[in-house]
Amino acid sequence: MKVMYDLNKTDFWNINKYILLHTKARHMLILELIYAALLVAALFLELNLKSRNDLLIYVIILLLLYVFIYIFVKIKVINLSMHYEGIYCGHLMEVNENEIIESTSVNETHYRWTYIKNISQNEQYIFIFFGYNQSYVIPKRAFNSDGEASDFFYKVRLFWIKSNNI
Description:
Blueprint: E1 2-6, H1 9-22, H2 25-46, H3 52-81, E2 90-95, E3 99-103, E4 108-112, E5 118-121, E6 125-129, E7 135-139, H4 146-164
Antiparallel strand pairs: 1-2, 2-3, 3-4, 5-6, 6-7
Helix pairs in contact: 1-3, 2-3
């Protein structure tokens, strides 16, 4: 089976957001958000502010801090992607019983099914994880229909399950 696709900046951000929220990285994100809340709370305790208005100011500052963190991370992720030539170009993925082959204008990679850690999907993408936060990501828009995307996903999972005796 073969599928051709390309990725854009929006895809790259959505992919990283998915990885951040659905892998072990989620725990680090939660800890960072709690740390930010505690840091702002410690600042307010140090300033000895206790009125209702102070609480409102605390919540507003915390929300602004979270928005700043979100924007900062998004900019960092998008800028990071600009350093890799093989991201925003045409991709050709071939899958067979033995391996996955991804070809771009920059390189060609091969992974045997036994090296694949997980395969998942959401409404926009199919993810084939070969590392903690490394994956092949195929946009479902690359297929002619939702049915084609589903067939591809289930066949890929079947190859993976058979190769790993799951």
